[in-house]
Amino acid sequence: MFNAADLPQTLAVFPLPGALLLPRGKLPLHIFEPRYLAMVEDCMKTPHRLIGMVQPRDVPEGAARRLHAIGCAGRLSGFSETDDGRYMITLSGMSRFRIKAEVEGFEPYMRCDVSWDGFERDLGQPERDPGFRRDKFLELLDRYFSAEELKTDWGSLTEAEDELLINALSMLCPFEPEDKQALLEAPTLATRRETLVTLIEFALRGGDEDRPQ
């Protein structure tokens, strides 16, 4: 288990649209670009083995690169290499962070000074959601999965703990990057569940209007 003292002040950052990592979640990644192969290799040499996942902002073509201020750090907990030199890795979500500044250096990938303040709860025990009405939520989810032609193991969903269920769906559902960011920044599990329900209901309406903010 990590504690606040184990968290570095500078973090390698992987900007990847639509790839959401949440505390205590697991994110598999396929790494093939040379700069990110180098990032993984450097990460494995550190005592913490953390990589920060961040959503790029949607900016006009040719504009300066911009990242969302809040990301989530994951510990490199799984690693394998293919015959042609690609890496298949798994990140285990540890804590969200706030970007303070980009660090200039010679590495081919981005590194940032970060702050972990305000996210102490991420390192604690799994959250619970006392207001979660699972039966009603699963009915909504069934309609959404049918509309999107998605398949799942309903037995596992029914038995999953509140946080595992809500966070796994937040990470896996095919929402837009800005929607994924809203799920990441939700201050509590209950708020994330409410945001998730709003996004599912919006998708079921098929609307381009009244998009959730």
From TrEMBL:
- Ranges where the Lon N-terminal domain occurs: 11-204
Alphabetical list of PROSITE patterns matching this protein:
LON_N
Superkingdom assignment? Bacteria
Gene3D superfamilies the UniProt entry points to: LON domain-like
Q: Please give the InterPro entries that the UniProt record associates with this protein.
A: Lon_prtase_N, Lon_prtase_N_sf, PUA-like_sf
Q: Which PANTHER family match?
A: ATP-DEPENDENT PROTEASE LA (LON) DOMAIN PROTEIN
This chain belongs to which protein, by name? Answer: LON peptidase substrate-binding domain-containing protein
Give the source species.
Palleronia pontilimi
